[in-house]
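Consider the tokenized backbone below.
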């Protein structure tokens, strides 16, 4: 490939060049096979990034509703705290087992932070923390979706580039055979 400075999207994913003139990419130093190999490597890298972003999208898609549910529960606990009435609920012990519980009005909640860590927060602190996490997750999901779209464009561009270089090579080989055929018949 030519030594031009490649641009990138805001999160650093490099933009693939579009091959307008194959001759700018193919030379004695870099024959067609080398250029095609580089293009295939670039496509593989883009597809690897795409797989990672799809996994991230799935995780964020699962986390956002959970955070929203938790914020709604904190709002309910805050509302019930003001009226001093208990909440009767079913809670999950495991995937298929639930138990009934009476939850008294409280000023605090416990949040799982991960890695077997749970901390006590006041309802206001918990809501602030979860709102921040929700905004961060939504921003991250938006960026992930933008990156996925960008990657699809880059993969398509590199596949078109590969086809252009391959077709150019086939054409050059055909022209060389015709020249050799014309030279040998004369």
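A designed sequence for it:
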């Amino acid at each position: 490939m030519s030594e031009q400075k490649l641009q990138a999207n805001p999160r650093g994913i490099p933009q693939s060049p579009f091959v307008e003139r194959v001759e700018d990419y193919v030379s004695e130093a870099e024959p067609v096979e080398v250029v095609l190999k580089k293009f295939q490597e670039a496509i593989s890298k883009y597809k690897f990034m795409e797989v990672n972003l799809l996994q991230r999208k799935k995780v964020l898609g699962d986390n956002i509703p959970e955070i929203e549910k938790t914020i709604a529960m904190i709002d309910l606990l805050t509302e019930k705290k003001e009226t001093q009435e208990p909440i009767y609920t079913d809670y999950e012990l495991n995937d298929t087992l639930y138990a009934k519980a009476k939850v008294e009005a409280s000023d605090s909640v416990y949040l799982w932070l991960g890695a077997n860590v749970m901390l006590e927060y006041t309802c206001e602190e918990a809501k602030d923390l979860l709102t921040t996490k929700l905004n961060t997750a939504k921003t991250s999901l938006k960026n992930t979706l933008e990156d996925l779209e960008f990657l699809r464009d880059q993969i398509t561009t590199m596949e078109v580039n590969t086809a252009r270089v391959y077709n150019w090579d086939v054409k050059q080989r055909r022209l060389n055979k015709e020249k050799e055929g014309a030279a040998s018949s004369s």
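Residues 93 and 99 are 7 Å apart (CA to CA).
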